[in-house]
Amino acid sequence: MISIGEYNDLRIINKTDNGLILTDGDKEALLPYTLVPANTEIGANISVFVYTHKDGSLLATTKRPLACVGDFAFLTVVDETEDGVFMDLGIDKDVYVPQREQKRPMSKGDSHVVYVFLDDSNDRMVASSRLTNFVEEEDIDLEEGDEVSLLIVDRSDLGFNAIIDNKYIGLLYTNELFDELHPGEIRKGWIKKIRVEGKIDLSLQPMGYSHILDSKDIIYQELKDSKGIIALGDKSTPEDIYHRFKISKSAFKKTIGALYKERKITVSDHEIRIVIDHEAE
């Protein structure tokens, strides 16, 4: 069965005036000649993305779409109608977003994170910016400390919402962010906390002591490279610490605390230094 809005491995069975006829043994799709790779022969198999044409027939393309059915993606509005908008999918087919599926009104030139799905009534791809209708909220297959991929969605009162591994939604809190974030960015993140009600708190920094061990090596090497002195200490601002080491102030204090206990450094309000005797060993 051909999966519409997804990649399919199909067999080439015939040629027409308009292109090659591909099949899965059940349904057929047309691949226009302009999209046929060189040296393609009848009888061979080819990987294509399949979508529904406005006349109801199936078309195939060898171009890579920006999203498949089941994906969350950051897309741009390229056309408006009275009932909805069309967003660029990166192929010869745009994806339609009806007004009812727009969390906020969309206009030409706007970009939004949307979820792409199949309209059961006509087998055509549509999209929605009402993301919470499509994320999984039960049986969350994640654990605190897991490394995940984040698609930044938008700013909220508390921070930035982000899609997690194309499956869940979580929140990055403003007071824990030291980088500029923008909708559509893909970031590496970590699961900070999974709440009883299924809400997920996120971090842009690793959780747990293994992160401290990594940070120890980085900071100690930086001290060596900086002639034994770094102008950051217990009372330095979170922004200054993040700018230098890309870690939170809390992680920084734990790290320099560990180095201090090992008698490798001395610590003051705005400075850390290598212990000379230790470095000479």
Which tags fit this structure?
281 residues, alpha+beta, OB fold (Dihydrolipoamide Acetyltransferase, E2P), 4 domains, 5-stranded antiparallel sheet, 4 helices, elongated
Describe the model.
The structure is a single chain. α1 crosses α3. The strands form four sheets. This protein has a five-stranded antiparallel sheet, with no helix packed on it. It has a five-stranded antiparallel sheet with strand order 8-7-6-9-10, with no helix packed on it. Strands 11-12-13-15-14 form a five-stranded mixed β-barrel. With 281 residues, the chain is α+β, with helices and mostly antiparallel strands. It is built from four helices and 18 strands.
How are the elements arranged and paired?
Layout: E1 7-15, E2 19-23, E3 28-32, E4 45-52, E5 58-61, E6 72-80, E7 84-87, E8 95-98, E9 111-119, E10 124-128, E11 147-155, E12 159-164, E13 168-173, E14 186-194, E15 200-203, H1 209-225, E16 229-230, H2 238-245, H3 249-261, E17 265-268, E18 271-274, H4 276-280
CATH architecture of the largest domain: Orthogonal Bundle
Distance between the termini: 69 Å
Q: Which strand-content bin applies to the residues?
A: 35-45%
Major sheet, described briefly?
A: 5 strands, antiparallel
Instruction: Give the neighbour order of strands across the main sheet.
Output: 3-2-1-4-5
Overall geometry: elongated
Helix content: 10-25%
CA gyration radius, whole angstroms:
26 Å
Strand tally, please? 18
What is the CATH topology assignment of the largest domain? Arc Repressor Mutant, subunit A
What string, H for helix and E for strand, traces the elements in order?
EEEEEEEEEEEEEEEHEHHEEH
Average pLDDT, to the nearest integer?
A: 90
